[in-house]
């Protein structure tokens, strides 16, 4: 690794793409594994935890890392695809070492670790050589003083903490897609997972829960106080919330529904009333619904909402009032491709696709799949007998129900490096193979 920087700050490695010698990307860096034996022995970096395409996490020894630069990591290309399993003698640098409280021996100042620097020793091993820590803020100061010191100048690096914080790990998680953050949380030791879940905001926790397996969802939600659990459920999409509540004990489910806002709870209850794996149970009751006298400019403004998934942003559902589901009479859909081709002042009532028969809520998942495939759609309307729009079923909803149980755990998933770190921000300016 002669062309690599002499020192690398590991928090900047998270998310960097990893390439083989042919220039093909094989995954992304999600963590580093270190052996932290005692205060007297310099911690040795054993390897990288890579997330290869499909969410599978594997271990790559540092001996197979050939180069690290500001934008990517290179390996020899020889990868063992067995799922990474942490050993009891190992420490995850991002997942467990960040936010650990340490003390500078000379001054007695304490702070939390927000980054660590690693470099190659004379024997070619990679070792942790620098510790970046931040003291608690004092008075009106928002941030405490930061220090970058030699590893031997701090105490507490090898100590496990029962009440370790999660501030700097959260920073790393918040820069990831929800699915990637969910994978990291799934892999965390139980005590760190608890700290992270407690510190995550309700909206972000809801996003992550939607990407976790049912077992993880139930475990995390059950550990929350009822008031907070209800708040998190309100932030989830109604169909995901309904699926999760259905996995809870009946008494717990009823208690949480009573704590939720009435409108949010009503949507969830309605979805739970449908037979499992039907269009009604899979649909979202919150698609983009507009009246026929809305303009194309208004429609496009609604479809630009950042909270919409690509499938929900693919079309507008046009109905008579009321526009909350169940709506007035469903008239048809306006596809985004058509909206982009027409003058902004045109009324969407004039660009409707009303030739397709909408789906009924009792349609099974095979019927939904056939419908979407037949008409080359990523979303479709679901209406009742009277022609009122109940919601929309999307291809991502369908895939969640078509894939085998536990697929999130079993399936494989899919920066820069400065000379001095700033607290866990981007720089300014299974097993052993």
UniProtKB/TrEMBL annotation:
UniProt-listed SUPFAM superfamilies: CBS-domain pair, MgtE N-terminal domain-like, PRC-barrel domain
PANTHER family: MAGNESIUM TRANSPORTER MGTE (PTHR43773:SF1)
GO cellular component, one term: membrane
CDD domains reported for this sequence: CBS_pair_Mg_transporter
Protein name (database record): CBS domain-containing protein
GO molecular function annotations of the record: magnesium ion transmembrane transporter activity
Protein keywords: CBS domain
Pfam families: CBS, MgtE_N, PRC, SH3_actinomycetes
Domain of life: Bacteria
Annotated CBS domain residues: 283-355
Species for this entry: Nocardioides bruguierae
Classification via InterPro entries: CBS_dom, CBS_dom_sf, Mg_transptr_MgtE_intracell_dom, MgtE_N_sf, MgtE_transporter, PRC-brl_dom, PRC_barrel-like_sf, SH3_actinomycetes
Region annotation Disordered: where it falls in the sequence: 409-433
């Amino acid at each position: 690794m002669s062309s690599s920087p002499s020192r690398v700050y590991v928090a900047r490695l998270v998310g960097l793409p990893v390439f083989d010698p042919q220039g093909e990307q094989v995954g992304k860096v999600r963590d580093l594994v270190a052996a932290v034996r005692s205060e007297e022995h310099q911690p040795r970096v054993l390897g990288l935890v890579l997330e290869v395409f499909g969410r599978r996490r594997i271990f790559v020894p540092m001996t197979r890392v050939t180069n690290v630069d500001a934008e990517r990591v290179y390996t020899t290309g020889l990868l063992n695809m067995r799922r990474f399993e942490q050993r009891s003698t190992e420490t995850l640098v991002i997942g467990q070492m960040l936010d650990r409280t340490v003390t500078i021996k000379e001054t007695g100042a304490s702070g939390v670790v927000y980054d660590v620097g690693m470099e190659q020793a004379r024997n070619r091993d990679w070792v942790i050589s620098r510790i970046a820590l931040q003291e608690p803020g004092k008075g009106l100061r928002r941030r405490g003083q930061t220090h970058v010191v030699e590893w031997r100048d701090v105490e507490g690096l090898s100590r496990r903490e029962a009440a370790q914080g999660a501030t700097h790990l959260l920073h790393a998680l918040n820069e990831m897609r929800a699915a990637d953050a969910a994978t990291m949380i799934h892999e965390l030791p139980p005590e760190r997972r608890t700290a992270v879940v407690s510190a995550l905001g309700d909206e972000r926790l809801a996003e992550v829960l939607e990407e976790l397996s049912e077992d993880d969802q139930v475990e995390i939600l059950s550990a929350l106080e009822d008031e907070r659990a209800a708040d998190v459920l309100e932030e989830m999409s109604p169909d995901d919330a309904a699926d999760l509540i259905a996995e809870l004990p009946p008494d717990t489910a009823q208690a949480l529904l009573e704590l939720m806002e009435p409108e949010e709870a009503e949507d969830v209850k309605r979805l739970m009333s449908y037979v499992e794996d039907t269009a009604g149970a899979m649909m979202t009751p919150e698609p983009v619904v507009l009246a026929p006298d809305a303009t194309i400019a208004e429609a496009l403004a609604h479809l630009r909402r950042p909270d919409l998934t690509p499938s929900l942003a693919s079309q507008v559902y046009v109905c008579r009032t009321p526009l909350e589901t169940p709506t007035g009479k469903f008239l048809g859909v306006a596809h985004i491709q058509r909206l982009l081709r027409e003058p902004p002042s045109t009324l969407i009532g004039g660009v409707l696709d009303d030739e397709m028969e909408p789906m009924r809520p009792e349609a099974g998942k095979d019927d939904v799949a056939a419908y979407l495939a037949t008409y080359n759609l990523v979303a479709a309307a679901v209406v009742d007998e009277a022609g009122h729009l109940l919601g929309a079923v999307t291809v991502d909803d369908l895939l969640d129900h078509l894939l085998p149980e536990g697929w999130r755990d079993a399936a494989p998933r899919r920066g820069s490096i400065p000379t001095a770190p700033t607290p866990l921000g981007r720089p300014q300016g299974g097993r052993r193979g």
